[in-house]
Specification:
Blueprint (H helix, E strand, L loop, with lengths): L8 E6 L5 H12 L2 E3 L9 H6 L1 H24 L5 E4 L2 H14 L5 H15 L7 E6 L2 H11 L9 H17 L4 E5 L9 H16 L4
Parallel strand pairs: 1-3, 1-4, 2-3, 4-5
Length: 211
């Protein structure tokens, strides 16, 4: 089976407001892939977490981890090419780690959580290509404001900076195929040339002569 015919698994990673969901949809439309989006609204711990982060951070992250593991397992059982908005790796490498560093998750809980993830990761197939959308905090703030979600109004700049630092550390260590796209000077949602340049990069990585 040629590379162009095999089922592709693409994942998009990036900070809040980086444009993951937008690019997921645009890639799905362009390549004929099925898009899978993260769902946070059905997490039963979310409201409790915002009331008492220290008490509920472990429960919240365990639910995200198990939910995303189940979601990814179900996705990859389908005989289709797909693109995924956010990855399970970001749960442990970014969000749980940030809660731990902010002393909102205890050492004991974080070590337990991390050990569980590493056991689960043995059964995960890594994406054929991970696309990391890199954006500086001013870009993230502008795009968060543009989409106007009420629950994102309270996101602090220093929180976005902490997440960006964790993303940079993680992406530098990520051992599988990856494509890093600096988005500060791109508008792939409204500019066809910018979008076309991203599509070309993705095609080159997936179907290039030397792959």
């Amino acid at each position: 089976m040629s590379d162009q015919k095999k089922h592709q698994y693409i994942a998009i990673a990036g900070n809040i407001g980086a444009g993951k969901s937008s690019l997921t949809g645009l890639l799905a439309q362009h390549f004929g892939w099925q898009a899978f989006y993260e769902s946070v609204d059905d997490n039963p711990y979310l409201a409790d977490f915002y009331e008492d982060m220290l008490r509920w951070s472990f429960n919240l992250q365990i639910y995200f981890l198990s939910s995303r593991f189940r979601h990814q397992k179900d996705m990859l059982q389908k005989e289709i090419s797909l693109v995924q908005d956010r990855t399970i790796y970001e749960d442990v490498e970014i969000f749980a780690k940030n809660l731990h560093q902010m002393s909102l998750m205890s050492d004991r809980d974080f070590n337990n959580y991390e050990a569980l993830f590493h056991e689960m990761s043995y059964y995960l197939r890594p994406p054929d290509l991970l696309i990391y959308l890199r954006a500086q905090v001013p870009t993230l703030v502008r795009q968060i404001q543009q989409r106007g979600r009420d629950y994102e109004n309270s996101i602090r700049i220093d929180y976005l900076e902490r997440l960006n630092n964790l993303y940079e550390d993680w992406i530098g260590r990520y051992p599988h195929e990856k494509l890093i796209i600096d988005t500060d000077d791109l508008d792939f949602v409204n500019d066809k040339e910018d979008l076309g340049s991203i599509m070309s990069l993705v095609e080159q990585r997936l179907y290039g002569l030397f792959n």
